[in-house]
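User: Please predict the structure of the protein below. I'd like the answer in structure-token form so I can feed it into my own downstream comparison script.

Assistant: Understood. Taking the following sequence of 503 residues as input:
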Amino acid sequence: MSIRHPSILGTVGQTPVVRINRLAPPHVNLFAKIEAFNPMGSVKDRLALGILEDAERRGLLRPGQTVIEATSGNTGIGLAMVCAVKGHPLVVVMAENFSVERRRMMRFLGAKVVLTPAALKGSGMLAKAIELAEKHAWFLCRQFDNEANADMHSRTTAREILAAFDGERLDAWVTGYGTGGTLKGVARVLKAERPETQVVVCEPDNSPILGSGIPQARRADGLPADSHPSFRPHLMQGWSPDFIPKLTEDAIAGGWIDRIVPIPGDDAMRCARELAQREGIFAGISAGATLAGALRVCADAPAGANILCMLPDTGERYLSTPLFEPIGADMDEEELALSRSTPSARFDAPPPSAPGAPTVVAAPVAEPGASPEIADFVARVLGDAEQPVVLFALEWCEFCWSVRKLFARCGIPYRSVDLDSAKYQKDDRGGQIRAELRRRTNVRTIPQVFVGGTFVGGCTETFDAFKGGALQALLKEKGVAFDENVAVDPYALLPGWLQSRKG
């Protein structure tokens, strides 16, 4: 039956609950609430509509007044849609390292996007939004502490979940958190009306803010005083900022959270890809992370349990992120073979000629005085003849991902030691390894690339060595097989915000 709406805003909410079949273990029933069915493709459409309609009812938002908010993207996209319908100019403040397609979507919808330095994290873009709102008398949405955010989810998301499982058991509800609006709004309703339902909250394993048990320091006005001490940059855009939002803090204080599950970034990306390729559900990194947490819950659940997880947004938000790094734009060998299996409509151009004569990068002289255990670990990694190419990296770092892109493009096998991953956080092993690398190379920055124990350099040094042929020569010298016919400008592999900081 066709339904008519007075505007696009009437299509917010009522998102479907869909069974997960091929990825779920057979002894449980796993379901996903797919928030990509909202008009702008994410759960944050609910927040945007709820906050602005509440502000209009209360007289806090005047007709034609400018709206401003700090956001990693989805809230800004939702606000841009609502503001377009209601006639409010919108200014979005966004850290420069969030995906480029998000800022382009907001601008397409008529918003202005002000970028802040990536190093200042979420708290930096929030501070900038407050500063601009005060100077220009704009309406600040305050998504991280605005009760209208949680209220919208109590009125809509929670009610939709209860209706979907009316008369049935609901053993667990699994979610991540960004602002905490979904978490607080749904959890308080479930605990009041379905107290047997476990509320499970997922967060990045390398940034265990909630799992740390350390409270958020706050200023007298309630805003975060500083970044949370357990925060580390992570891959899940839109998840857990560098502080505990007030709405999330409310859910903790209310005793509504039963379990916190740490999720590795690799699991998040793997599950997002598997959702697409095995379930036909196109969702983002945070959705993959929530599914990873739900699968963890499924493993321990009794037979016949019903488990529901939230999938916050669509995968189209992530085309320029590491999620799509393995997905090429050109045909791979298997696809080329398919093309060549019939005579028509083929591309059979000869491969590009090999680069010029290579030169070898010399290794620096190591200095004495290393910690024996760490020094031995680094020495073993660098001396491993089975894996001579080593990348010391950070999971979240765009420069590191750009080096990974080059290696993938050229088919260069390598070992990645991700110093900020959960594996290396215990006893600050990652920091100790960085100190040992600094002792060896006299270089403080990451990434650091080695081939057969020879230090090549960081991202730009590796790119320069490739452009000049020195990297290829070193790989051949150390017996590393790679595709010598690849011709690419490695600097084109940097994300747009690193190639040009103009925004």
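That's the full token string. The first strand starts at residue 17 and ends at 20.
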